[in-house]
Design a protein that fits this description.
427 residues; 80% helix
């Protein structure tokens, strides 16, 4: 009888061990399910959906190299850069600075706008391992696009699509590059494929809708803007403006007016909304109202061709011939600049090393109030010719106007160095 407590104790310990093993087995099974779900979400490029599954995996397996690397990649591609750095630091603490670490570190830095410091390394990695190049191409393509290096962006997007013809981001970036090369029909094809593969992708739908509007296909564009309006984003202005333009073009005047009035109430000095509202007033022969709205639009965005053209029509109706001719002259100058920009872009695609042409393209973009695009062209020009005087002068003026004094001073110094280079006699 005295041995009974010992037997009970041993039995209890056994039961506890069995329960613990069962609990651990269940926890392991749950972690594996989260891992599969995280991988599936990342393959779909749905990094927000992947995040909770990866968090669960990290809780279960905090030291696993593949989990840490996938968590880093997911955070990086979702542009949660602080989180990506934390995951990558955890990887380094446990696994050191491996080859996988070096690649992920370079990709992270490149996405954070350090293309020049990492481009050579990444391009070489693509050359050495073409089969495993997709993660690198996913970063190089938008990085080249942001730098307005259209030939490189287009090439990388096409290489990415060779590896995965259904890569949605690759389709959208290739469409973007073709759009900027004025190959609009080809861009539409890429955007359509992207939307078919991922109907909820707002960027693909918005790009498709805007190009269809540019091609004067408002009826087809309308369905995409309606979809986007029914799935609003934090900044929905572009969607609602596109929807209003479609409704006006297909004759849904009341709906277009309501949308534009709503947008103007929220942002009374938005020039594109003013332009569209003024054009609608002109359609309805409310010429005085159109004049007031279009003049405000032109004051805010002086190089908007559509606003200038509509204002010229407005002055013509009011019998103000001299003012109408002034607007027509503006339109002709803007058209000339736009045609020259398109020609330069085509030439640069054929011969990418062309700093003078890149500089001219940048100057035209600045004249057309396309500041972001203009600065990208100018920066790409000085990458090819570090002492190109006109490019540095234009960048200095731009940064001074934008209140970025240090950058303005730096580019003025480089312009001076460039002038000294041209006046120094050859030895």
């Amino acid at each position: 009888m005295r041995r009974r407590p010992l037997r009970y104790a041993l039995l209890l310990a056994g039961l506890v061990a069995v329960a613990a093993a069962g609990w651990l087995g269940t926890r392991e099974l749950a972690a594996r399910r989260h891992w599969q779900a995280a991988q599936d979400a990342c393959r779909r490029h749905d990094f927000d959906a992947a995040r909770p599954h990866l968090d669960a995996c990290l809780e279960a397996w905090p030291k696993r190299a593949d989990v840490l690397l996938l968590a880093t990649r997911a955070a990086r591609l979702a542009e949660r850069f602080g989180e990506a750095e934390e995951r990558l630091s955890a990887y380094r603490e446990r696994h050191g600075e491996s080859d996988a670490f070096a690649l992920e570190w370079r990709l992270l830095r490149t996405q954070q706008a350090d293309l020049s410091g990492n481009e050579e390394y990444l391009v070489e990695r693509v050359r050495q391992d073409p089969a495993g190049a997709a993660p690198i191409l996913e970063v190089l393509t938008p990085s080249y696009a942001r730098a307005h290096r259209l030939p490189e962006a287009l090439h990388c997007a096409e290489e990415l699509l060779k590896r995965d013809p259904e890569h949605v981001e690759g389709l959208v970036w290739r469409g973007w590059a073709k759009e900027h090369l004025e190959r609009f029909d080809e861009a539409v094809d890429d955007y359509r494929k992207a939307v078919a593969l991922r109907p909820g992708d707002a960027w693909a739908r918005l790009s498709l809708g805007e190009v269809l509007l540019h091609l004067n296909k408002p009826g087809e564009a309308l369905e995409h803007f309606v979809y986007l309006a029914e799935h609003p984003r934090p900044d929905n202005t572009a969607v609602l403006l596109g929807l209003a333009r479609c409704r006006r073009a297909v004759g849904q005047v009341e709906e277009a007016r309501a949308l534009l009035d709503e947008l103007l109430a929220a942002a009374p000095d938005e020039p594109l909304v003013l332009r569209e509202r003024g054009a609608l007033a002109l359609d309805e022969d409310r010429v005085a109202e159109a004049e007031r709205l279009l003049e405000r639009s032109v004051r805010l965005l002086p190089r908007d061709r559509q606003a200038r053209y509509a204002l010229g029509q407005c002055y013509q109706k009011l019998g103000r011939g001299d003012l109408a001719r002034q607007q027509l002259e503006w339109v002709e100058r803007l058209d000339h600049d736009q045609k020259r920009l398109a020609a330069l872009t085509r030439q640069i695609v054929q011969r990418p090393h062309a700093p003078d042409k890149r500089c001219e393209a940048g100057l035209i973009c600045l004249r057309l109030d396309k500041e972001t695009e203009g600065v990208r062209w100018l920066l790409s020009a000085v990458r090819q010719d570090p002492l190109l005087v006109p490019a540095h002068e234009a960048l200095a003026d731009h940064y001074a106007h934008a209140g970025q004094a240090q950058l303005a001073v730096r580019h003025r110094q480089l312009a001076e160095q460039g002038r000294a280079r041209t006046t120094t006699p050859a030895s």
